[in-house]
Amino acid sequence: MAFILEMLAGAVGRLAALDAEVFRIFWFTVQIGLAGTLLGVVVALPLAWWTYGLAPRWKALVLIVLQMLLSVPTVIVGTLVYLLISRRGPLGALEMLFTPSGILIGEVMLIVPLVTVFLHSSLAQIPNGLVETARNLGYRGARLLALLLRECRAGVGAAVAVGFGRVVSEVGVAMILGGNIKGYTRTLTTAIALETARGDTELALALGLLLLAVALGNALLVHAIQGAAARAGGSEEGTVSPSVVPAADWAGLPAENESMPELAPIKLEGVTLTLADRPLFRNLSATLPLTGGLAVSGASGAGKTTLLRMIAGLVVPAAGRIDLGGRRAVLVFQRPFLFHGTVLDNLLASTMEGAPRRWGNWQASTSESSSGSGRVGVSSGGAGAHSRSGAKEARERAATALASDLGIAQLLHRDVSGLSGGEAARVSLGRALLADPDILLLDEALGHLDELALGLVLQVLRQFMWGGGGLVLVTHHGGLGQRLCRHRLRLQAGALHPEP
């Protein structure tokens, strides 16, 4: 025991004396580790995204291969890279053997499978409904990936930290490809191995303490990232007390007596779809009228949600087609899937630029629509007339005005994790409206609302229809469908039937 304490004291003394060679090795290890991690993430990210999008059977095969590679010893990786960059290898002309570049290549190959598996796991934990919500709002390709990475940022941070930890703690790759050359390619791990073999235990322990410090810092970083993600919700900074909003009168004239713009219907032509070996639709042909709104009812499991998902383009029928007449449909799910951030962040989350066409001047349109004296018109300037900053300001003004109409203006700067079910439902609806759809699809999206909130929402939906928007509402509330929508259909046994 005395010997161990003596060696530890000597190691601490070396560190306290700021031994130049010790800290040169330390900084080289950190630098090569950071560079290797960065390059590894750059390679692993598209690989993880590609794996995420594969069909289940192919995805399973790719993941098995990646997980197998996690168990490959570092000396095997080092040997394989050695064969590539040695003088007789295919990359020998680049003269990277026994250089930092050679170590870098080996470290990238070492951590790519590890980081890929972690990144894919983080992406796979995102609820499918949130992914569909993003696609529904127009996110595709790199923009969709960026959004999803933000949603699983704690997992991404952990993947990067684990990759860095793997790089700085390995010895086989650095030894084989770097050669442990003093002042050039010596890392903490290779130096520890060398000094232990030489009998300089104090120096080996000093280097080991630095390596443990790096490992501790890495672990604390992972803990901080995960803790920050866990604490990301519930902030109420910047909120104000809710104002008293009078109950909206939604018990007036039935929807069939209201004057609405004429809209072309949605046409279903020979639609066939089977889900989980259960046929939902067989050669379904129907016309879905949109003028004045359409309410669709039916028993649970009849396929109402699937019908809306097909109209939104989230589900492709096995046969037949759905003709929207070139219009864009946006679906509001029964369960509100909100993105990380504030209410305002979510309202502005669609991919469109500028204010929505139907209410570039939402506040004026609201006053006209509420009095029944006019239709919601297109903004006088239009989004194309704004500069980039002007377009952003126009969207923020529209979002603020719409939030006021929905009764959630006091929540604009609140984190969405602290919202009630009814508040989240209104945020989800407002986000869909600000995505500027031609057709709005509501899948039991009003079930979380109390009478006051429901009145406000119905008033906004009527404004949307007065402005030329098409509405398809799935609901079990017969009275709601009758009050809001002029047309009512019942889905039963894979067919649509008119309701009186």
TrEMBL record:
<protein>
    <submittedName>
        <fullName>ABC-type tungstate transport system, permease protein</fullName>
    </submittedName>
</protein>
<feature type="transmembrane region" description="Helical">
    <location>
        <begin position="203"/>
        <end position="225"/>
    </location>
</feature>
<dbReference type="InterPro" id="IPR000515">
    <property type="entry name" value="MetI-like"/>
</dbReference>
<dbReference type="InterPro" id="IPR017871">
    <property type="entry name" value="ABC_transporter-like_CS"/>
</dbReference>
<feature type="transmembrane region" description="Helical">
    <location>
        <begin position="25"/>
        <end position="49"/>
    </location>
</feature>
<dbReference type="GO" id="GO:0016020">
    <property type="term" value="C:membrane"/>
</dbReference>
<keyword id="KW-0547">Nucleotide-binding</keyword>
<dbReference type="GO" id="GO:0055085">
    <property type="term" value="P:transmembrane transport"/>
</dbReference>
<feature type="transmembrane region" description="Helical">
    <location>
        <begin position="61"/>
        <end position="85"/>
    </location>
</feature>
<feature type="domain" description="ABC transmembrane type-1">
    <location>
        <begin position="26"/>
        <end position="222"/>
    </location>
</feature>
<dbReference type="Pfam" id="PF00005">
    <property type="entry name" value="ABC_tran"/>
</dbReference>
<dbReference type="InterPro" id="IPR003593">
    <property type="entry name" value="AAA+_ATPase"/>
</dbReference>
<dbReference type="InterPro" id="IPR049783">
    <property type="entry name" value="ABC_perm_TupB-like"/>
</dbReference>
<keyword id="KW-0472">Membrane</keyword>
<feature type="transmembrane region" description="Helical">
    <location>
        <begin position="97"/>
        <end position="119"/>
    </location>
</feature>
<dbReference type="GO" id="GO:0005524">
    <property type="term" value="F:ATP binding"/>
</dbReference>
<dbReference type="InterPro" id="IPR003439">
    <property type="entry name" value="ABC_transporter-like_ATP-bd"/>
</dbReference>
<feature type="compositionally biased region" description="Low complexity">
    <location>
        <begin position="364"/>
        <end position="378"/>
    </location>
</feature>
<keyword id="KW-0812">Transmembrane</keyword>
<keyword id="KW-1133">Transmembrane helix</keyword>
<dbReference type="InterPro" id="IPR027417">
    <property type="entry name" value="P-loop_NTPase"/>
</dbReference>
<dbReference type="InterPro" id="IPR035906">
    <property type="entry name" value="MetI-like_sf"/>
</dbReference>
<keyword id="KW-0067">ATP-binding</keyword>
<dbReference type="GO" id="GO:0016887">
    <property type="term" value="F:ATP hydrolysis activity"/>
</dbReference>
<feature type="region of interest" description="Disordered">
    <location>
        <begin position="361"/>
        <end position="394"/>
    </location>
</feature>
<feature type="domain" description="ABC transporter">
    <location>
        <begin position="266"/>
        <end position="500"/>
    </location>
</feature>
